[in-house]
Amino acid sequence: MSTATTAISPAGFVRAFRRVPPSVAWLAGPLLLIVAVPVADAFLPPDIHLAHLLTVATAVAAFGSGPRATTLVGSAALLSLTVAGLERHTLTTESVLVEWCSLAAVSVLLILFTHLRDRHERALLRALSVSDTAQRVVLRPLPERAGPVRLASEYRSADADAHVGGDLYASARTTGSTRLIIGDVRGKGLASISDTAIVLGAFRAAAHREIPLPELVSYVEDAVRWGLAEFSKSEADLHERFVTAVIVDIPDDEPVVHLVSCGHPPPLLVRRSTGTVTTLQVAEPAPPLGLAVGESSAGMYVPATFPFRDGDRLILYTDGVTEARDPAGRFYPLAERVAVRAGHEPGPLVEAITADLRDHAGGRLRDDMAVVVAQRDPGPVVVAQRDPGPVGG
């Protein structure tokens, strides 16, 4: 009977090493160093001692591993120092005892450090999980299609640890139209989440009902004014809180778009036939939500109507986009950059704007930003359910 041996090629060794968990691979160096110290001490002159390298091994383990692995490496380092002292018959000397106690103290501190670090990381992961949940509940992703309208959106918070903040958007379907809202709560990041939730909750409660656009905006205004007054800490705080917004209604059976602007930056319209980019300036803009004088009334909200044909794209955005500055202080030229990408589909267009904006701002946004692209497509219309009744009914 013959026995065959298989040689492992360098490439095979590398592939096998890559399959090792990172924490285990990270410990290979410290453990090899721990083994090497007593071996090297057996061959070195008596005046040369490598015990200080054992502290390095424990520190490296603590940097890339958890408390258990650090405890293992620290214990192995103490054992290595003991073996080296026995080899040289110097274990009970003052020098080795000081080295042993110092290594033990450093190991204990590093174990405590890894424990606190891991606890902090777990707390951070829980916070990120809560943030993700809040984003899904408050700022739900837009559907890819709503009736004859294709949608794409992107959101970035100014807070690096927050996934939802002061910018907002939402969509809703009625039996014959698609409705959109985009808004910007005064403030940014985590502090503005409550106001964001108020606006989106009011819009979602009423937008799907068969009410005219002015009545929808009036309903949202009433809810925002009540919410801001309810949660404001003082009268001064109340007067400093408001929400700019654009509320849009896109009928299924008419090539137009109706919109009401409440102090918000004007949308852009990209014509499919020519590729031109037009700013949709509203002749009678309304005040921001929460700042209406007296009792709100649908009469103060006058919709503006613009042509919106098959293939046209409507771009809604917040001032976090157009007010982003480059290192030289120049604002982001959204209309100019959109014109260059006029042929992009909604999804790629949103991705391109977001990437370009981040590059323009030097990789860091100083304000929340949101972008929504809506494109009217020919094809079958998805019919929503019948209106369940009047608002509040």
TrEMBL record:
An MF annotation (GO) of this entry: phosphatase activity
Xref: InterPro entries: Bact_Sigma-Reg, PPM-type-like_dom_sf, PPM-type_phosphatase-like_dom
Transmembrane segment boundaries: 24-44, 51-77, 97-116
Origin superkingdom: Bacteria
Pfam families xref list: SpoIIE
Domain PPM-type phosphatase: 149-376
Keywords: Hydrolase, Membrane, Transmembrane, Transmembrane helix
Protein name per UniProt: Serine/threonine-protein phosphatase
